[in-house]
């Protein structure tokens, strides 16, 4: 059954979760995962940026997708990553 909203985080009643509730869920599940730092929603943006870069997405595409006005905020995701070089030669 399709949700009644385009929100990413939805409740059992298919309505958008509040910003605070989503933040608390992410923090809670970060603690359950025993992450070495406190999880927060902005980490999802970072994870998305790094995942797009790891998949070879163009820097301008990542910039547009993340809504960055300044390309310098995006280049951090495309900085050299040793794992990318390993996959390049396989």
Automatic annotation (TrEMBL):
Superkingdom of the organism of origin: Bacteria
GO molecular function: DNA binding
Lipid biosynthesis as UniProt keyword: no
GO process annotations (BP): DNA integration; DNA recombination
Annotated keywords: DNA recombination
Protein name: Tyrosine recombinase/inversion of on/off regulator of fimA
Pfam short name (any one): Phage_integrase
Source organism of the structure: Candidatus Methylobacter favarea
Domain spans labelled Tyr recombinase: 1-90
């Amino acid at each position: 059954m399709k949700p009644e909203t385009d929100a990413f985080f939805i409740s059992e009643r298919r309505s958008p979760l509040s910003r605070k509730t989503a933040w608390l869920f992410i923090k809670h599940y970060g603690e359950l995962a025993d992450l070495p730092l406190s999880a927060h929603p902005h980490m999802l943006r970072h994870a998305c940026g790094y995942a797009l870069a790891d998949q070879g997405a163009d820097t301008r595409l990542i910039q547009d997708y993340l809504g960055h006005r300044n390309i310098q905020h995006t280049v951090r995701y495309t900085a050299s990553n040793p794992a990318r070089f390993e996959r390049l030669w396989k």
